[in-house]
Amino acid sequence: MKDNLEQQELPGIPRGDAARKLTLRREIEQYEAVVAEHGALVAPLIAARLLGLSRQRIHQLSQAGMLDSYRYFGHVFVALRDVERLQFMHRPHGVNRKVLDKAS
Strand 69-72 and strand 41-42: pairing? Predict the structure, then answer.
């Protein structure tokens, strides 16, 4: 049921650029499959705002395996279900390094 990519209109991509259309179409299909399996994806900035953390901390949590992350369309996304799970998890607040340095 796949349409001929040469005939599909994709905004911003010239009609004759079949290879680019194919790459973009595959990326869209992969994105849709991940969303169907794992639910909504959000940008790290949105995840950071929801959790009261920095974007850098979101990336650290992703690298540590606490948040599933995906790269599509040149951007990183995290699974909203993981963000919600972390939101309701009992996490002790960290101690500021400056406070620890002063105590030493």
Answer: unpaired
CA angle 84, 86, 89 (to 5 degrees): 115
Nearest Cα to 18, choosing from 30, 4, 32? 4
pLDDT in tens, 50-86: 988 999 999 999 999 888 889 988 889 999 999 998 8
The residues spanned by each domain of the chain are 18-103
Structure pTM? 0.64
Q: Report the run of H or E that residue 41 belongs to, with start and end.
A: strand 41-42
Give Cβ neighbours of residue 3 (< 8 Å, ≥ 6 apart): none
Q: What is the DSSP string of 42-83?
A: E-HHHHHHHHT--HHHHHHHHHTTSS-EEEETTEEEEEHHHH
CATH code for the structural domain at 18-103: 1.10.1660
